## 1
Amino acid sequence: MKKWKKALIFLLAAILLLPTAALAAEGENGAAAALPFRDVADGAWYTDAVAYVYGKGLMEGTSGTTFSPAAALTRAQLVTILWRYAKQPVAGGSLPFSDVEEGQWYTEAVRWAAAEELTVQQTGRFGLDEAPTREETAAMLYRYARTKGAGFVGMWAFPLRYDDAASVSDWAYEAMCWMTMNGVILGTDQNELLPQGQLTRAQAAAMLQRFGAALWAQSPLSLWTEGSETADTLTAYMEAITDETGPDYIPVEDRIAVFDLDGTLFCETDPNYFDYMLLKYRVLEDPDYKDRASDFEKEVANKIKEQNETGKSFSGLEVDHGRAVASAFAGMTVDEFNAYIQKFKQQPMPGYEGMTRGEGWYRPMLQVVEYLKDNDFTVYIVSGTDRLIVRGIACDSPLGLPNRQIIGSDETIVASGQDGRDGLDYVFTEDDELILGGEFLIKNLKMNKVSVIMQEIGQQPVLSFGNSTGDSSMAEYVTSGNRYRSLAFMLCCDDTERENGNEGKAQKMFDLCAEFDWVPVSMKNDWATIYGDGVTYTGAQTAAAA
């Protein structure tokens, strides 16, 4: 897998010096757990950190009821903690240390750390029960960070301006420079680093909590919650399929992912699909068109209005909507249609403060798209929304996909001078423009998505992302009989605080994921944000009245 692209300021705010107040405990998405330790008092500076490491299985107690926060951390404990943080990878090879025996609780951790060259000692005696120094801990953290793409690259210079800088060992100097440069180690009030000092178990717990948060903040999926099983599933998949030596390797030309749009990448319920709201505005509100709208277009637009206000379903509305869009915008050039969409995108998003209609992108999912592209995936949108409308939504947006990779429902496009003649009987002229022909062709939902993937992409994708039963066929096509390891992810709209969610609908999708072995995405629990800072959900009823 490619290294993480950016090694910016990497605030591994580890407690490597005197104890300081720990970060606040994680919320409902984190690993905070009820503590059985009678020596960890409520409100202590390290309580939240102990809950974090205990809840994540990184550190255990020294007994069933004690954590021993003031006890010194041992080297065996440190290497095991880091190994657990790395999700206990399996390493081959013999043990290079004379005092490390096979079959002990720390054995595989030491083997892994030695294989990754994280340990200060390379051969000889490991010193299992000895306390690692601060500079040793800093070096191990730095070396692990480098395996994730962080650290100094090329020439660098950052002097240690501390009174005891000369006591930093040569092998730890780069690590200490990087840690201090990035605000990880600030020194004491006496301007000392204390590189030969040691860590307590409480300090180690706080260090791991801050290390985890900071490392996750620099990950390609930093807008997902730390510890998200769904995010971990995707990153583990990426590690496997980009490993040229592994059994799951997928050549670059076969790395294809398909995404639905509404409810998967973009706000679905504002209070209805973007293209539904666009038609409603065109037919019922646009002063330049509403008086010219056909009875059929008005009928469809009023059904959408009623659906927005009451939630009522109408059989066949998907296709009727497609037909109404085709007729309501007939005669517009492709560019004029796009300009109309761009203007509509500037309207405030109903039901939200701080967001326009065109800004309703799910930020965590945009990270997924970038993550896939960084790993040489070709990403396609396969949407039920009109193809030209999807292109208009994506135009000048953070999605960053070319029009050729955007597939949707279709209507006819003809030459402005064609005047109803068949395309086989007409030759495009220099005076022609491409205009919307007014005839609806196909609604790209359900099985139609599978057909259009074969028609336009020409091969089976390996990743699918959707959110509804309209995406089920696409998900099953991607994961059925695939010669490569493949996955289907389904978003579940279970967030009713930050988004117009629906817990009943979400539960049905969770159940389908369990039945079909799809990977569920909880908008509530897997995402640290949905639309980014400054956006507030105000309620669906306000939207319906808009």
Note: The radius of gyration is 28 Å.
## 2
Amino acid sequence: MTKEDVAAVLIEYGQLLELKGEPSFRTLSYHTAARAILEYSGDFPALVAAGRVSDIHGIGSTLKTKIDTLMATGRLPQLEALRTEVPPGLIQMLRIPGLGTKKVKALYDQLKVTTLEGLKAACEDGRVANLKGFGAKTQAKILDGLRFVLEAGRRVRIDQALSVAMLLAERLREVPGVIGLSACGSLRRRKETVGNVGLLASAGDPAAVLDVFTNQAEVIEVTGRTDTSADVVLGMAVDGHRIEVNADVRVVSDVEFPVTLVQYTGNKRHVEKLRSRATARGLQLTESALIRGGKPVECASEDDVYSELGLAYVPPELREDIGEVEAAERNKLPTLVEVSDIRGVLHNHTTYSDGAATLEQMALAAKELGLEYFGVGDHSQSLRVARGLPPDMVRRQHAEIDALNPRLTGMRILKGCECDILEDGSLDYPDDLLRTFEYVVVSVHTLFGMSSEEMTARVCKALSHPAATILGHATGRLLLRREGYKIDLDEVLKCAARHGKMIEINAQPNRLDLDWTHVRKAKAMGIPIVINPDAHSEAELALYPFGVDVARRGWLEAKDVFNTRPVGEVVKELERRRAAGTV
């Protein structure tokens, strides 16, 4: 077992204890230990094997015994017993925004609700609203959240799907005779969330591949199997959270692999266009072959398949039938931005607010990633829950930056902040303090319940402020957890273009906000995009490639992304923007 597996077990154990009504000091210890294990940077299995897991802060003798058992057997009898005492539907209810363990326990104790469907019925007939501590507004929010959770089903975030795919691919590559192996479907197109982790393999013995795939320890259920394919449901821990996800593998010959990969990567409409194009050119595009005159055309790669169809190669992220086939015919596809094009990041948090690492540690971690500049984006004063900085703390941080920059070779720290957009659209710092920043990311963190008209006006007013540089996470969504607030993004884009502002792609995998469809609109309007990890730790700095995925899906080239510029150009442009303002 990995440390992520152990952390997921401890989190579930703590949640089940809470749902049983155990004292908070006992339940909290499991969550604290899980966080500490996830943050441990050493060889966790070796630490456990040496009998020293208690070296990690927060792990006493009781937890040590449970962890030793888990690592030795892969099971925890106490957890299995707990699962029989608590209806599984209660854990599912915790996915609903705003429903914590106390409220879920109240629903169970007072209404005997044990499933999502039962909760839906209790909301629809008004029983939830009548409970003490709930009311009509809470009931309405639960119904909204229920709809969101039920629609999400077994969908997982792109980062979780990639972790699953990498593990599956690692195991399948060890099967003798496997030649080609690739992710396909929406995962390869890098959609923000994925309903199925699809893999395509080429091998001479499909049965051997399918046996390994279906007999993995994480397989909950085999939902289908043929001579060349298998579908399963997996239950596994990813970054300390247990997920269930659908996965499948299809096995073909090595000759069939390129054509099949094209078929199983593009969405249905993209593939239909390719088939129609093949027919028009006297070819037949089947599931596994491109045929001319009754004989398969030799295609060594996907590039060959597109070439035979008279098209330039279409990158996987663009295969959504949004004009890419027509552009490929004219050889007018964009040269998409690459991860290697990113030179720095401008929205990150340190221990000054709610980050886990110091200013210097974050800057050095960014340098280790090969970046040239690190932009601070600590929270502003009103967001107290995130330890937002009062003005005197801002001045202290700026003094530290001034002291650090001369001695940081190959790394420049830029003075920025993530300034809250207040209810009336004003910014959370006075103008004289805003002038001291090199750039200002403006974001909404509160009052998500405003109408679309009110929220749009609020954000647009903030963008009209001379000090505002970048709009952060434009909708406030949390993927598979919370819908974004109501806002007219088309109007926001017009406002950003009118005032010469930039917009962020927030690369946190639970946000990926702005979405790719609006990224493409922003490009058409000439709005510069900034790809930011919104990092709260050194490790999270490395999340920016997920933002690059969104940018590529939105047809962005390096020139469309502000932070592909070298540090000198960035500093010069930020200075120009400040000078042009009238703060």
Note: The chain is about 45% helix and 15% strand.
## 3
Amino acid sequence: MTSNKVMFLLLLLLSPLLYASESGTAELQSSPATQEIDPAARLIQLHAEIERSRIDLDKLKKQLSREKNEEQQKHLKLRVEELSKATENLVLAFDRIALNGIDWLSLNDSDKPAEKFDWQKELLLITRPLFSSLKELTEKPRRIEDLRNAYTRQNQLLESIDKALLSLHDLNKKNDNKVVQKRLDVLTEQWQQRRRDTQHLVESIRFELAGLQGDAHSNWDSFVLFVRDFMSGRGLTLLIAVLSLLAVWLVNRGLLTLAMRLLPAQQLNHKRHRSRSRAMGYIYQGLTLIIMIIVLLMVFYIRSDVLLLALLLIAVVMVLLTMRQAIPKYITEIRLLLDMGTVRVDERLVYNGIPLQVMSIQTFAILKNPELEGIVRLPLNKLTDLSSRPVIDEPWFPCQAGDYILLADQRFAQVQRLGIESVELLMAKTPVHFRTADFLSLEFKNLSREGFVLPMLFGIDYQHQSISTDQVPDVMQQHLTAEIMQSEWGNACREINVAFREAAVNSLDYHIALGFDASAAGSYGAIQRFVNKSLVELCNAREWGIPFTQLTLHQAPGNAVVQR
């Protein structure tokens, strides 16, 4: 970032303050009462007013001491209090003009009584520099705003006093009673004094406000001065802190790299030493963080930047308090990071019904099934409720992409895609999707895993009962063997068995079992149709009858019964 951009950003940050200062100056300049007045002349005028007010105050006090009427005493006491307060305001106005707006009373606190020790307040001492800096940053705008409000209020009070004096003036013209006239003269003198006091206060506020806003530097000079002070003060402190942190990080990183090079790679990757190596790595990172915090504290302390030091200490304390409340959870997660928890790297666990292998455990745990597409990324807090076990010689998934399977309802399908979330099958040339967990709950046979056996049932008519147990099975087996060996699946055929099964209701049934290698899995349905075709052809050639469903009609008086 160039220096121009930095200056522009700082200007944006300071623009509210600059705008407030400019708008306040314009407001005062637009008022007719803001014409320039010589401070020396004003001080002479105020001094004369103070002396006159003190003389009047002495007269009132003497009159009060001689007065016997209680009603008049109360009235004189009220006048003494008002005149005393007005005299104090005149003295304060004189001091403010003489000191160019500096409030000496707010600076001089030597006469304040010593505060009692309060351990709760002492615990919060560390935050005082922060609030003091924020207060100092907004001191001038807040003081200007307060003076503007006071200036407006006093002007409104002047308007009310002028109305009261105008009313008294009208009454003096109309009144002929001497007693009432005497009372009106007293009220007129009181309100005239109030107007003078208020006018003095308005002028003192205007002088103080002009002193706060009458900076000798222009806005740009003030901005440049602020940037220069920041770069030579707190900005330099922050730069030193950043460079110190970078130096500490580079040194510690270099030492770690050197240690990794000196240690044999086989020892680092060995499963027995892996937990120890990870523990040492995390301890080293923790020590690096502690050293960096100490370096920051030293930099801020040496540079005597109380604000940055307080902010850093507050941040450290807040982190420690947060860790204190979450220590049990952190201990569990640290055990997982050190590969000493219930879930460990390279082991097997079941998540959402899917077997997964733990690939790594860092800020997130990476889980993956070698047979499925995609990975699962879990935060450490999700692993606390899981457990893993060592991997044994077992499949990660019952099928792979391209395998042919036979579902429990005898539906034949080919696996098209396997993913963490879904499985895609091809059934009768139509894609069908299952959730992976739901697919695992299905019962099916994987014809492509290690071959398959195709069981079939075939029956002949009872008229061949005499040869049904000896000749027919042999002839069927020889015929099927010759036919299949000449077909495209001959090399994949492992065995052919034909055996008499049972004498069923309408037929003599034979159990046929054909074993094939996995290479013939895609032709499961074609092989079924081929075997049925071959056996029908054999029956035609041997003139063996094939049974069919028979219908027998039994006629009875009044009804007919159909028997199947």
Note: The chain has 18 helices and 14 strands.
## 4
Amino acid sequence: MAPLTALSRLAPITVWWSESSPGIDILAGIALAGLLIPQAMAYAGIAGVPPQMGLYAALSGLFVYAIFGTSRQLAVSATSSSAAMLAALVTPMVAGDPSRYTVLASAAAVAVGLILLAGGLLRLGSASEFISKPVLKGFVFGLALTIILKQGHNFLGISGTKGNFFHQAWHVITSVREVNLWTLVLGASALALMYLLAAVAPRVPSALVALVLSTVAVSWFHLQQRGVEVVGTMHAGMPSLSWPKLSEDEAADVFVGAIGIALVLMAEALAAGRIFAAKHKYDISPNQELCALGCANVASGLIGGIVVGGGMSGTAANDSIGARTQLSTIVASLSVGLTLAFLLPAIRNLPQAVLAAIVIKAVAHLADVSTLRYYVRLRTESIWGFSVALVAVLQTGILKGLIFAVALTLVVLMGKLSKPQDSVLGELNDTGDFVDIARYPNATQVPGLLIFRPNGMLFFANATRIQNRVRELVKRTETSVHAVVLNLEASPEIDVTTLDMLQELRNELRCMGKELWFARLADPVHELFQRSGFLEVLGQEAVYGEVDAAADAFLHKSYPAPEALGA
């Protein structure tokens, strides 16, 4: 039984295969392919690579994830966010040699895959939660605006440009006279058609319909002669297996940039996976998910594809069309393979404007105005985290904006942890329960005893603040406090900086003729006290399991009659 359990954890396909509904899942897979094939080609355009590389990514991502992933609905293919971040990583690296672009793009997929795989093996499935939700939402909002704007030149038929969001926006505004009306009409018609079909026939693959109709329109009306850009000839055939060859400097640059991409893919895929796992009442394994995404990206890179992730739009579509297991994505992968093998030459007249429209339709929901209004209504610091991350992406670019967003989250977190709330405790109505006197006015302090509780974990960033807070409370009541009890129930462990602070605080209080006691020490804290020799210095009589035990011990000791403890 043990080998079977190990196999099922390594390859969850062995679990869900027997639970699949072939008729339903096969139909769902065909419908899913109708959505993902146009999207994969469009996202390849975002990444700056030929359309077939997006199809290679879909082919491998869908199939490999189906074997190793624990989600039954997650559709792993090229995504708008991964493609945009890939372009942001690779474009600066090929300034001197554009022919290296596709090699670097595939190498980035391999690097992202190795990072995700390592994260899964090291059980880092919770690492994606290091970015706060408002900051992540702001980053995604800015990412969506950036992607939409970058499609402007294809959608309008104008020349493209480089620079940040604001520079590109100004370029679009000043290039209005260059707009190709045929291109604009095609793009706008495709966009309107997709929104119309989504409203009246949501199960119809609207992107595929727009792709076919626009390709036919270009051929029939000879729109290419009127300045409409098309994808051009793409030779049919399956990809070959090869390892992207990089120099040491290129490999280092790709790997560093891949870390940021991996972090966003992790957050995106786990969020989508958890939503649909909860809906269908099953569990996913975050660490196995990272391994599955890692394998999918390595496979994509080795066959010449781009970075893949578990996108929300593809996954939602997979669920809405009835997929019950990953059999649907295997069928979708096979459909992509058939397209690569036989159908690519038939879509050489696919207009770039329609691919741009597919991208705009796919990412528009990421610019979530309702979430922005919600944060404004809350009137908390969340709106600042959202806004700063948004502006950072628009001003500095996608990868730099991501780094800034992560740094912002860490700064905010450290700021909160460095200023923990604290409480002075008193006994509630002679019950033996000690509570915060600020919240319970009926609670009374033990005369001569200050019971202090930091309401957060103690560590190097807040140790000095807590020390100063105790000094302040003791100074207010210097003539009446004979002992201080530190209730450390909110600190499951402490670091060396905190230990040194506590030793220093005890020495200060002793010089003032006062004692320092401890209550509710967690086992790791008690063990650190013991290993450091601090417990021996304190004596067991200064350490208590509960606050009421410390209060009772204090009341049974002889002290000069204390004055009433001040506020």
Note: The mean pLDDT is 89.
